[in-house]
């Protein structure tokens, strides 16, 4: 998972889309994938998972199972179905 600073670092490596070779849509992400591997140690083939590996998209860990809640405003854990204690 990437924090917001790491996500910005990785995505800053994205190249502008080439107008000369519009067929190579993954070419703009070559450096993004390399930077992601440097930051996390995990090698990806395509950049799609990077958008889902951003900590700020998820909530805190579940009090019962410890997995991250699906959103910061979740009322129920998606993994173990435990209700989330109201923090207010």
Calculate Rg over CA atoms.
Answer: 17 Å
Average pLDDT works out at 87
User: Which residues form runs of ≥5 with pLDDT under 50?
Assistant: none
Give the count of helical stretches.
Answer: 2
Distance between the termini: 27 Å
**Major pleated sheet:** none
Judged by helices, strands and strand pairing, the structural class is: mainly alpha
Tell me roughly what share of residues is in helical segments.
10-25%
Order of helices and strands: HH
Instruction: Estimate the strand proportion.
Output: under 5%
- How many separate domains? 2
C-alpha geometry: elongated
The tally of beta strands, per DSSP, is 0
Strand-helix topology:
Blueprint: H1 4-11, H2 30-40
Helix pairs in contact: 1-2
Description of the molecule:
The chain is an all-alpha fold and 88 residues long. It contains two helices and no strands. The protein has helices at residues 4-11, 30-40. The chain is elongated. The model has no long low-confidence stretch (mean pLDDT 87).
List descriptors.
single chain; 88 residues; 2 domains; 2 helices; 22% helix; elongated
What does this entry show, briefly?
This protein has 88 residues and is mostly helical. Helix content is 22%, strand content 0%.
């Amino acid at each position: 998972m990437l924090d917001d600073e790491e996500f910005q670092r990785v995505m800053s490596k994205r190249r502008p889309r080439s107008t000369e070779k519009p067929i190579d849509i993954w070419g703009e992400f070559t450096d993004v994938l390399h930077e992601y591997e440097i930051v996390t140690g995990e090698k990806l083939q395509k950049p799609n998972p990077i958008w889902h590996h951003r900590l700020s998209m998820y909530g805190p860990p579940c009090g019962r199972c410890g997995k991250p809640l699906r959103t910061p405003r979740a009322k129920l854990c998606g993994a173990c179905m435990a209700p989330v204690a109201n923090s207010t």
